[in-house]
Design a protein that fits this description.
This protein is an all-beta fold. The protein contains no helices and 11 strands. The strands form 2 sheets. Strands 2, 4, 5, 6, 9, 10 and 11 form a 7-stranded mixed beta sheet that branches. A 4-stranded antiparallel beta sheet has the order 1-3-8-7, with no helix packed on it. Strand 5 and strand 6 form a beta hairpin.
Length: about 110
């Protein structure tokens, strides 16, 4: 059974940092493109970042460029999303997916003073 589990969400002050983890079981993340999306209250889902499976190319949404970083730890079967200089508008539930086929249940990030 394939399962993706996000973790690392928390309440953080503006300007702070968090690292989200996406841990997989039942599949090897190394062989999948992995993406992070988020859904803020009352808003549509937004693609945040993506790392390809072939050459580990990375893509970032315009609103998070220069602040967020995605990277893999294949030994742990995880993909991380490092988030720096967080802003209140980053508040959302963050979801990871593998090849847009398998999804986790999300982890809540709240940025507030």
């Amino acid at each position: 059974q394939v399962q993706l589990v996000e973790s690392g969400g928390d309440l953080v002050s503006p300007g702070g940092s968090l690292t989200l983890s996406c841990t997989a079981s039942g599949l090897t993340l190394e062989y999948y493109a992995v993406g992070w999306c988020r859904r803020a209250p009352g808003k549509e889902s937004e693609g945040v970042s993506y790392i390809s499976n072939r050459d580990n190319r990375k893509y970032y949404g315009n609103s998070v460029k220069e602040r967020f970083s995605i990277f893999r730890d294949n030994a742990k079967n995880r993909v991380y999303l490092q988030m720096n200089n967080l802003k209140p508008e980053d508040t959302a539930v963050y979801y990871c997916n593998a090849a847009i086929r398998y999804w986790g249940k999300g982890t809540l990030v709240t940025v507030s003073a």
